[in-house]
């Protein structure tokens, strides 16, 4: 045993001579760094704890001869030195209650260094992270303690088996136990510190939440104030940009003439735009219009005039681009309305209809809609175009009551022009809105072969079709071998044929107008008997001079009434008189044969005899509809 002790002492001295200086220096530096970083966590305690555990493990390994003492001794010295120095630093910190470290309390420069590096003032998140890491360290220390305890038990067992080394092993076990007690004590201290830091963290969290709640309250108050300020600003701008005020200002400026040198109000910018535009200074006119648009005034006439200027200068695409930019920022419906007018044809009409659907009481939109169907825009109008134009103009003019249009115009002369054009155009369109005035007519003509139906349309068409009855397909009438000069296309056939057996029914007529839009169908009632009577009556009235023929064909003394006989289906009675107007005689007509209406029965005599003294004859026809013809007089030659 003495030899072992002597060898160990020699080995210890040799190791101290080689390792002690740098180990002690490194341990001292580690303790100082841990002390400086103390505001972030008890690093000195951590270093002491880790170094002590390492020293114990190395010592046990040396005792059990698991490693060579010569190789392990420097590491043991280093771990022991680090544990001693770091433990001393931690002990001094606890006695002096130095939260920022012993060195920082003694040396002000170190404290300033901690503040500049942000070590002292850490956020709650850092504190919570440190607490979490400390908790993990405590758990690891606990595991190490359990391992050490287990190791102590194994050492005790080994001591019983190795009686030759009993005394030395007993000392080692006692040393291990003492170290274990020290580790347990340090563990309790660390746990206490961790609990203290957790409590501080919770308190800090409460403070942060309180600050956050206060901040949110202040933010909400600021937002409410901002909203009130914006609302007040909008109201102020609305008052400042009143159409009535702007209109009066514009009227006064127009009376004065000349451009305003330093314009500030919207009426002044609009006035300058008109002055520059009339003078041909389009650049300054454009600038003034843009400045007016910046006020977001909801008036239609400045923007329609501005759009006209832009189309002249930049084309429709350029105007669309400029007003597209304005419409993205503007709230005034008038700017958005004028923007959509810069699109082409069908797209423009669709957008205009969508705008009216979203703003049904925006009066200027109806005048602009009417222009889409006007003769100026289309060149030639269909009946549907005229009706659409009349409907839109009527709607626009209806807003004139109670000054309902004034609020949309800065320049009242522009409003007067729109109203004059609307009234003039409505007068020209006449009763186009009366649908009964423009229903197609159907004129039946009866022949021995059947019915010939002639269609009369209220406007030029490119195709006509018809249908017998209330259902079934339509039949196209076809085209004629000639072009219609009004459409530039082949003229549709205006007639079609029906058999003589056709019973009373409804005939539907529809057609395509010059733009290819379908119009109809229109249901027209067809009564064969009534149509035959009406046709016959029309012929009799039109050709009444042929009712009576004296001495026809050299047959002296005979009076022929063949024409009345042929169209007898329209006649109820024929009264006549000779050499006077008494109408005291009657010509008896044979019954009407609807299947062969114009044929004269073979057994009927279409004439009668008169004496030579008969010089004239008076005739009156009573028709099947109850009406009577005038008394017609026929003189004998």
Describe this structure in words.
The chain has 637 residues and is an alpha+beta fold. The chain has helices at 2-36, 43-63, 69-96, 102-106, 108-116, 124-161, 166-240, 243-256, 266-278, 282-293, 300-329, 333-340, 345-358, 364-371, 375-378, 383-398, 412-429, 528-542, 562-566, and strands spanning 441-446, 450-456, 463-468, 475-476, 479-484, 489-492, 495-499, 505-512, 518-526, 549-550, 558-560, 571-578, 585-587, 607-609, 616-623, 632-635. The strands form five sheets. A four-stranded antiparallel sheet has the order 4-3-8-9. A hairpin with an 8-residue loop joins β15 (616-623) and β16. α11 (300-329) packs across α12. It starts with a helix and ends with a strand.
Outline the secondary-structure elements.
Blueprint (H helix, E strand, L loop, with lengths): L1 H35 L6 H21 L5 H28 L5 H5 L1 H9 L7 H38 L4 H75 L2 H14 L9 H13 L3 H12 L6 H30 L3 H8 L4 H14 L5 H8 L3 H4 L4 H16 L13 H18 L11 E6 L3 E7 L6 E6 L6 E2 L2 E6 L4 E4 L2 E5 L5 E8 L5 E9 L1 H15 L6 E2 L7 E3 L1 H5 L4 E8 L6 E3 L19 E3 L6 E8 L8 E4 L2
Antiparallel strand pairs: 1-2, 2-7, 3-4, 3-8, 5-6, 8-9, 10-11, 11-14, 12-13, 12-15, 15-16
Helix pairs in contact: 1-2, 1-3, 2-3, 2-6, 2-7, 6-7, 8-9, 9-10, 10-11, 11-12, 14-16, 16-17
